[in-house]
Automatic annotation (TrEMBL):
CDD domains hit by this protein: DsbA_DsbC_DsbG
Organism: Aromatoleum aromaticum (strain DSM 19018 / LMG 30748 / EbN1) (Azoarcus sp. (strain EbN1))
Name of the protein in question: Thiol:disulfide interchange protein
Domain Thioredoxin-like fold: 135-262
A molecular-function term among this protein's GO annotations: isomerase activity
InterPro entries given in the database record: DiS-bond_Isoase_DsbC/G, DiS-bond_isomerase_DsbC/G_N, DiS-bond_isomerase_DsbC/G_N_sf, Thiol:disulfide_interchange, Thioredoxin-like_fold, Thioredoxin-like_sf
Chain's role: Required for disulfide bond formation in some periplasmic proteins. Acts by transferring its disulfide bond to other proteins and is reduced in the process.
Locations listed in the record: Periplasm
Taxonomic lineage: Bacteria, Pseudomonadati, Pseudomonadota, Betaproteobacteria, Rhodocyclales
Length: 268
């Protein structure tokens, strides 16, 4: 006689059937718990590994309180007290104040990219519109966009005067005040070998002319070309410096730092 499954189970006492069901349920729950525990343990180990990597890449200079996952795959939240930044799974790269940083090299990768985008190849500068000054062997190159109405430009004159073995191309860039326009035109109105001296007097604080002399009106075209070049290259502030390798520096720079930057640029 063939025995069906229903007949087999029907022959089991009710209590035994209930015990079997409870046993199966318990096994299922245990398996689920083990799976969850294993997953959670692996996640914790991974987060601790990122924490250790950040400390290693920073030579212990970055103290991490906690690392947590974020909704973005591969990006992790890092907290240090009340400070928060985000790191990748290697612990080497981090987003700090909206900038991508290489922790190991202590390098702001965002700033490096911005400098690349802002660079002006030196051979693209309108050198024919610059006031040229050669010091020493003139091997290093520096372009300066400056305005007599700019206090920072005036304060930087001693730094520029202290540089040696450099060729400085000065662009009279009257964008800070309309009063600087007659000064720029006046300098360009001078013979070529006297423009540097005339422009320097204005940068040293001499009052600019109140108006453009009639005989100097042709020089307006030269000054206009300088301003137009600056506009197309988005030179919005003075002083703006351009090193020999094209790097753009906005604002003043200590003499030692500028001297070192000029040497590095000349070596590239």
């Amino acid at each position: 006689m063939t025995v069906t499954h229903s007949q087999t189970y029907a022959t089991l006492p009710w209590a035994a059937t209930a015990n079997l069901c409870r046993a199966v349920s318990a096994l299922a729950l245990a398996a689920g718990a083990c799976l969850a525990f294993g997953t959670e343990s692996r996640a914790d180990v991974h987060l601790e590994a990122i924490k250790a990597a950040i400390s290693r890449h920073s030579n212990g200079n970055v103290q991490v309180d906690a690392v947590a996952a974020t909704p973005v795959p591969g990006i992790f939240e890092v907290t240090n007290g009340r400070e928060v930044f985000y790191a990748d799974s290697t612990g080497r790269y981090a987003f700090v104040d909206g900038r991508l940083v290489d922790i190991a090299e202590k390098r702001d990768l965002t700033q490096a990219r911005l400098e690349q985008l802002a660079a002006i190849p030196f051979d693209e500068l309108p050198i024919d519109l610059a006031i040229k000054t050669v010091r020493g062997n003139g091997a290093r190159k520096l372009a300066v966009f400056e305005d007599p109405a700019c206090p920072v430009c005036r304060s930087m004159q001693d730094t520029l005067a202290a540089l040696d073995n450099v060729t400085i191309y000065t662009f009279a860039y009257p964008v800070v005040s309309p009063e600087s326009i007659p000064a720029a035109v006046s300098a360009w109105c001078e013979p070529g070998d006297q423009r540097d001296r005339q422009w320097q007097t204005y940068m040293d604080g001499a009052p600019p002319p109140q108006a453009i002399a009639p005989q100097c009106e042709p020089a307006m075209q030269q000054v206009g070309r300088i301003v137009e070049f600056g506009r197309t290259r988005e030179i919005r502030s003075t002083p703006t410096l351009v090193l020999g390798d094209g790097r753009r520096i906005v604002g003043a720079m200590p003499r030692e730092e500028l001297d070192a930057a000029l040497t590095r640029a000349a070596a590239r």
